[in-house]
Amino acid sequence: MRPAALAALLLASTATAAEPPPLSRRIDARVAAGLAAAKLAPAPQAESHELVRRLYLDVIGRIPTAAEATAYLDDPNPAKHHALIDTLLAHPEFPLYWRGVFDHWLNGSLLERPAGGSDEFKAYLERRLAENAGWDQIARELLDPNGDDPASAPAAYFLASRLAGNDRAAQVDAMTTAVSSVFFGVQLQCAKCHDHPDVEDWKQENYYGVAAFLGRTYSAKAKTGNGPGLTERPDGEVKYAARGKDYTARLLFLDGTVPDATAGRRKSLVALGVGAERPYFRRALANRVWKQFLGVGLVEPVDQIHDGNPASHPELLAELGDAFAAGRFDLRALMGGILHSDTYLRSSRWAAGSRPADNHYASAVPKPLTGPQLAVSLALATGYIDTLTAKYEREKARLKLDAVTPTVVRRQFEREREHAALAGRFPPPGEGFQANASHALFLTYNPAVQALVRTPSGTAARVAAERDAAAPARRVYLAALARRPTANEEARVAAYLATPNVSRDELARDLVAAVVAGTEFRFAP
C-alpha cells in the first residue's frame, strides 16, 4: 500500500498544474523528432469540449456529467486540462474503471471471456489500484500469490482460471500464453510446434523454456477466501517433440538465462521476469497503457515486441519503460506522463490532405467507446443513473451499502442486467471491433437502450418539460456530448420539438435516442 506515494504524485502535480511533468516533455520531444523526419506538422490542441470528454472516458471510463462538463467549459484557466488530469487520476472511480481494463487484459481477451474474471478477482484488482500498488507488486502476486494472505490470495485466479479441464498440455499452454503476453509483451504460441517461422528471436526452446516454469503449477483448494488456490508440485517436467526427437524442457527465460529454481519455479520466473532491471517487463505494460490512451501502440500488436517488429518510436518505448521502472512502477505516474503530453492532447481533426498513419501521432485517434464505457455513459446521458441512485437509497439496507455515492452506484450498476445487455454488445476496440451502422441501429432500437431513454424523470422527460426554445438542445448536448450546441443546432432541435400532431414527450425521447446513437456520442474524440 503506497498512499504516501500517491499523495506525493498528486501534490507535485497540483503544485505545477501548468507545467507538464518531465516525462511528458520527453514524450513530446521524441514524437516531434519523428514528425520532423516525416515532414509532418502536428494537429493543434483539441478544443475544450473534446478534451473534457476524452479525459473522462480515458481516465475513469465514462462521459462527464452535465455539471462536470459545464464547470470545465466555464473555467477560464488555460491550464485547466492539466488540473483535470490530476483530479481524474485521484478520482474514486479510477480504480473501479481500471480494474475492468486490467481484468480484460489479464482474462477477457486471452480467455475469450467478455465478462472477465471472478468478482473476488476484480475486487482484488480494485483494491490494489486504489492503494496505488506498483505494477511489479501486482505482477508478483498474480504469478506467485500468497494463499495465506487474504488480501492477495484472490490473485490466484489469474493462473487457476487456465487450469480448467483435464487436458494438461492445454492448461500449460494457456498459462504460458497469458504470462508471456501480459507481463513480457511477447507472443510465443507460434514457436510451440517449431521455431517461429517469421521471428528470429523465438525458438521452440523459448516457448517450452517459459512453459517449464509453469509446468508444476496445479489448482488447489484455497487456504483463504472463496476463490481458487494454487500449488506447485515438487516434480513433473514439460515434454515436447522437435525434429523427430523427444525433449524435456529446461527452464529458460526469454533473455537466455537458465536459472537455479531451488526456491520454486514460479518464484524463479518472478525473480527473472519482474522488476526494474527487466526490459521485457518494463516495456510491456508501458506499451499497453500508451495504446489505451493514444489508440495505437508504439509496438503493434502489443504482445509482439521483438526485433523483427520494431517500435514506431524505439527510443520513446525505452524511455517510457525506464521512467515506469524508475518510478517504482507507479501506474498513475506513467499515465500522468502520457496524459499531460501535447501528443495526447492533440485534436483528432486533420485540416487538409490525407491523414498520416496513426503511429506518427500527428493527431489524436478517435476511439470507439468500449462496452463498459458505453453502458455507464448511456446511464448518465439518459438520466437513468438518477433512477438507480434513488433505487439504491431505498434498498441500501438490503444491499448492505454504507453510503450511496456515485462510485457505489456505478459498481452496483455493473451487476444489473441492463449493464450486461449493453456492455456485452460492444467488444473492446482492438479485438477485431469495427464501429459500424449496426451499432448505431442497436443504440436506436434495442429495448435495453429504449428503456434507459424512457426513464421517468430522465433527460427526455426534462427536455419535454423545458419551455425555453434553446434549453432542450443545451440540456441534451451537455448531458451526452459535454458541449453546448451551436445556434443552428439549437434552432433545429427547437423546430423538431415543435413538430405538429406528435406528443412532445415522444419527440423528446426520439431526440435523446438520436443523439446517443450518433457518431459523436459513440466515439471518444
From TrEMBL:
The reply on keyword Lipid biosynthesis is no
Pfam families with a match to the protein in the record = PSCyt2, PSD1
Q: Where is the DUF1549 domain?
A: 27-217
Would the keyword DNA-binding be found if you checked this record's keyword annotation?
no
Q: Which residues form the signal peptide?
A: 1-17
Domain DUF1553 positions: 265-496
Q: Which InterPro entries match?
A: DUF1549 (IPR011444), DUF1553 (IPR022655)
**What is the name of the protein in this document?**
DUF1549 domain-containing protein
Natural source organism:
Urbifossiella limnaea
